[in-house]
Amino acid sequence: xxxxxxxxxxxxxxxxxxxxxxxxxxxxxxxxxxxxxxxxxxxxxxxxxxxxxxxxxxxxxxxxxxxxxxxxxxxxxxxxxxxxxxxxxxxxxxxxxxxxxxxxxxxxxxxxxxxxxxxxxxxxxxxxxxxxxxxxxxxxxxxxxxxxxxxxxxxxxxxxxxxxxxxx
Length: 168
Prior knowledge:
mainly alpha, 8 helices
């Protein structure tokens, strides 16, 4: 018998509720100290908090609410998120046929407000490196906007060609 997505979701929820009924908040916290994954640690702490929300002895366990814990420590995925954004932008500039030539890369850099000095015999990969150095200085929101514009440029050009082919 094939398990559907809906069945899997119900099974996950059922397992979580079963764990909440048999484990204590201290069990969840002890498990959170054993993992190296920050996301799993946060999930286990959230389960401990959920268990305490259903338990009248909340004050006895000495647990601080998760909101206070999350304010006290920096977001663990911020650095990983920034590096994955950089990798995504680098992949688009490197692999996209729309940025296959040096003039296209320089045009994109100029529209984004980057000033890239290029020698006549400079390689395409060197130009991408120069652009990426400037991208690294941007905040995460600006990087995301840049990535979306880089990928959207492809869609707009494709749509333009489709309109020409359709005769619009």
